[in-house]
Design goal:
28 strands, mainly beta, 4-stranded antiparallel sheet, globular
Length: 358
């Protein structure tokens, strides 16, 4: 039986795919399950997908800045790659190629990790943080696993470059850097602890995604909301340059998923079509050009898509049996069929099939 693609994840400059038999395939830079060596020394080039060494199979994956993560069917979290964020409170571990269990974590439902900070959502709705954290007047501090004080059970977590989000039963919370209004609090003051995002009255959020300094959310009606930096039109409009409160993003259909790259946005429509908008310096909007675009527009050639993921400047989309990648390819994160960024004849600005050797 041909395995199906259960989940995908895009890190800063690597890509991961979880197949139905529980194996994780990785390609690109650190976090893909390989040592990044000069080409003459490498067993397989970084563009070639390899199986991440693991003693367990996984049911869910996540990608950080040079790291990868897997969650087993009994909700044990594993991690591999470079250890900038402390790999869930293990600062003594510098790097690991094989997936290692993250000691100290209770049963986990979801992980969200940036370069130096991470969040774990537990099965009982608690949230644990680790890595570099903004400590208010004391400045930035490095910490091990620390529980967040929440008034209601958490449903989802998301991490941007310097801020974080938690969706709870009582509403949406945000904290950290706020120079572009990415906390959605109506002001630009950084916050060391979670505060409430100022959503429109009676609006209920179903899921969220965090970019470098902007956020996306889907409400229960399938509509997208965006706030934070709008430097490249990643909020789906020309003005303002930033927004301290969520603004509606206009699409032609209800949305079932969103993903936020560094300064660009992706949405998966109920029809299986993928929309993109915002920053496009690496062709990560998938339109065959490098023109930034503030209008959410369908990416040509993608149909029947079931899941999407956004890295720093590249993106992934998958159906049950097909996987596509586009955008930045400096670290070979587009896979074996991905062209070089500097190839004028085939620059990787449109979705390219990723062939998994299964």
């Amino acid at each position: 039986m041909i395995p199906t693609i259960l989940h995908i994840a895009a890190g800063r400059d690597h890509s991961l795919a979880l197949l139905s038999h529980g194996e994780v395939w990785g390609w690109g830079a650190e976090g893909s399950g390989r040592v990044v060596l000069p080409e003459i020394c490498s067993v397989a080039p970084p563009s070639t997908p390899i199986v991440v060494p693991a003693i367990r199979s996984f049911t869910r994956i996540a990608a950080g800045y040079g790291t990868g993560y897997g969650i087993t069917d009994d909700h044990i979290a594993y991690g591999w790659g470079a250890n900038r964020a402390g790999l869930a409170g293990q600062p003594h571990v510098l790097a690991t190629l094989q997936a290692e269990a993250l000691a100290g974590l209770p049963p986990v439902a979801q992980l969200a990790v940036s370069e130096f900070y991470g969040l774990a959502l537990t099965l009982d709705g608690q949230v644990l943080e680790w890595g570099l954290s903004r400590g208010g007047p004391a400045g930035v501090r490095n910490q091990g696993l620390t529980p967040l004080e929440l008034a209601a059970a958490a449903r989802q977590v998301a991490v941007g470059r310097g801020h974080a989000l938690v969706l709870t039963d009582a509403g949406l919370l945000a904290w950290g850097a706020n120079g572009a209004g990415q906390l959605g609090a109506g002001h630009l003051v950084d916050q060391p602890r979670p505060i409430t995002v100022q959503l429109p009255p009676k609006l209920e959020i179903r899921s969220v995604a965090a970019g470098a300094s902007h956020n996306l959310a889907i409400d229960t009606g399938g509509r997208i909301w965006a706030w934070g930096s709008n430097q490249y039109g990643q909020l789906g409009r020309s003005e303002p340059r930033y927004s301290t409160r969520p603004l509606a993003v206009e699409l032609d259909e209800p949305v079932v998923d969103v993903a936020a790259g560094m300064f660009f946005s992706l949405a998966l429509g109920a029809s299986g079509r993928v929309y993109s908008w915002g920053w496009n310096a690496k062709g990560q909007l998938g339109r065959g050009t490098q023109r930034h675009d503030l209008r959410p527009t369908v990416i040509p050639g993608l149909e029947g898509i079931a899941r999407i993921a956004a890295g720093q400047a590249h993106a992934l989309a998958a159906s049950a049996h097909a996987l596509f990648a586009w955008g930045d390819n400096e670290a070979s994160q587009l896979g074996p069929n991905g062209p070089a960024n500097r190839d004028p004849e085939n620059p990787g600005w449109s979705p390219t099939p990723v062939s998994l050797p299964v």
